[in-house]
Structures are given as structure tokens and as C-alpha cells.
Amino acid sequence: MPDSYEIGPIRPPSEAQSLLIRVTRNCPWNRCIFCHTYKGERFSFRTVEEVKKDIDTIREMEKEIHQLSWRMGYGGEIHPQLVRYLWGHPNSYGHGWQNVVGWLYFGGKQAFLQDANSLMVKTPDLVEILQYLKKGFPSIERITSYARAKTAAQKSVAELQELHKAGLSRIHIGMETGYDPLLQFVQKGVTAQEQVEGGKNVVQSGISLCEYIMPGLGGKQFSKEHAVETAHVLNQINPDFIRLRSLYVRKNMPLYEKVVSGEFELLFDDEMVKEIRLFIAHLDGIQSTIVSDHILNLLEEVQGKLPEEKEKILNLIDRYLALPDSERLLFRLGRRMGCYQGLDDLDDPDLREQVGRVIEEFMTPGGPKEDSSSHKVEKAISRLMESYI
Length: 389
Known about the structure:
The structure is a single chain. The strands form 2 sheets. An 8-stranded mixed sheet has the order 1-4-5-6-7-8-9-10. A two-stranded antiparallel ribbon has the order 2-3. It has 3 domains: 1-143, no CATH class; 168-322, Transcription Regulator spoIIAA (2-Layer Sandwich), CATH 3.30.750; 325-387, no CATH class. Helix 4 packs parallel to helix 6 (157-166) and helix 11 (269-281) packs antiparallel against helix 12 (310-321). By secondary structure, it is an alpha/beta fold. 48% of the residues lie in helices and 11% in strands. It is built from 15 helices and 10 strands. Helix 4 links the parallel strand 4 and strand 5 (142-147). The radius of gyration is 23 Å and the shape is globular.
């Protein structure tokens, strides 16, 4: 049975069906105070030969998985029971096997290059890796990667076009904010102008661009500037996708110390929703698609194609903000519990009863005490959110 291969710690939620190919290890910058993923780890390149060896290993795994399917009576099909079997025996089939069988189950059409900034690899080397990957797995239709805006700004359009021709389909960039004072505060290591330059380079090359925005990152002090200036930067780039990733501060993030000291004041959920509304209202002249595909985002329905669906998105936000306090609390808890996906779920009597029972548990025997009970609900919501990251 083939050995496993090297896999990095994360990938975007939209790459859940992707084959993971680790091209670099960790993050070359690794100073952002809102991130905990790579802290304490050093960045390093993997050689082209190391990556090719992993691709060869994956090919052997693919053959073994199909053979196992025949032995289990599934005729070579990637049957759900086969997936469960491999995932249910982690001592025999580790993360590599689990990734490959999941990738095959969803059609074997997507691959994601790890870790945080694959564009750091020299263009000829990355082209060689992309070509080898495409040759090894002709079923792959889309190859994506994370990248830093600063790195994309330093790559020429011609280099990016070369990578696109070799198979790189999409680049995910964590913009977070387009407001320079905030970029400095969170130690992002890039300027708003560099974000514009990097984004434009990617768009001009023909590679699909996905920009990630972090509502709440400005806290109470910079909320307005964060919303307006970020929209201004995106208006100059016109990326294919704008993905929302709401801020949640964990204790192992450097930003947590600033929260404790009072230097950084967190936004409440409703304040963050208002910030998102201000941000979207200032998006103008672009044809991007807004996506809200993470449980940390309160309103998953805040998504659609610009400009035609902009009013629909704003109206949905206004609908939430117009709800009575008790209904917003019910929705917030239900959303974090995984019961609610959209505002219409508030009309489902079974879901309402399920979430309502949880709220009742926070009420004291002598009757509701708003301060204490709401505080307990907020703590429960916070614990649920932390479990998602």
C-alpha cells in the first residue's frame, strides 16, 4: 500500500472537494495579528521533485482505492460506503487517503495548491508542477491557490498568464481590508495600492480572482473606514468573487491581547451586519459575485451577482435589522447552532421550538432576568463560533 503524502493545515471552504497538493510550507509573512494558523511555524519551499513524488503517490493511492472498491463489491465505483470505510479507519488510511477518496467521490475535478502563498515559487518551477499535475490527472478541470496581494503585484502579467496557460485557474487573496491605517494596525504587510496592483495583475492575466474580506476587522474605531475604503479598493480591481469571512478573535491570536487591553473593541453581530451593509452599498461599477459561505457569517444569504442583485442583498440585510430584538437573538443562536441558514427559517415552527428551548434553558427558575440570561446566550454563541475555527 502506498505511503501517505504531505498535506498542509488549511484550504478555503470552497475547496472542500479539491485534491490538496502542498507546494510550500506555512506562510512567508506570518505576522498578521488576526491569524493563528501558522504561528510558530517557519516558511519553506518544497522542491519540484518533492511535489512530483507526492503526485506519483496520489496516483498509486487512486489505483489502490479503485481496487479496494472492486474487492468490496462496488465495481470500481467510489461508493459512499467506501468513503466511510476509509474515513473510519484513520490508523490504516490517514489524511492523505481521506483527501484522495473524497476528491474522487466528488468527481476528481478540482485541486488546490497549499499553503498560504504558492506564487512565491519561481514561475518556471510552478509551471512544471502544474503541468505534471494536469498530466497525471487529466480529470482535473480547476486548479486554485492562495496568494498574497504583494506577491501578485510583484509577478508580471506575462508570468501569471504563463501560470494560467499551465493550468492555474483561480487565485484566492486575503485582502481583509483596503484601509491603510488598519492594514498597518493588523500588520498585514501590504498597502491598499499594492492590493489594487496585485488584484489587477491577476484579473488581466485571465486567472479567476477571489478576494476575501473580513467584516469586523476594524473594530468600533475603524468600522466605517474599513467598509468604505475596502469597497473603494475592490471597485478598482473588479474580482470575480468577493468572499466574506467575519472576524472572530481566539485566545491564541495576537489580536486577543489588544481586545483584553481595550485597545481593540469588538463589534457585536448587529454592528457587523450594519458594517457589511455599508460596505456593499459602496461597491460600484463592478461585476463581482458576493459570497457568504462560512458559518462565522451571520447572514449566509448575503450573496449575489453585482450589480443586478445589489438591492436584493441590501433589502435582505434591512429585513434582518428590522426584526425585533428577540427575533434577532433567536436567529443568531439558531444560526450558530446550525439550525438556521436563512431568515425564512424563523418561520419554521419545529426549528423555532428547538432553538427556543435552548434559550429557555438560560432563563432562571424565578423568571427571565434579561441581563443574566442574555449574557449566558451571548457566551453560548461565542463558544459555538469558536468551535468553527
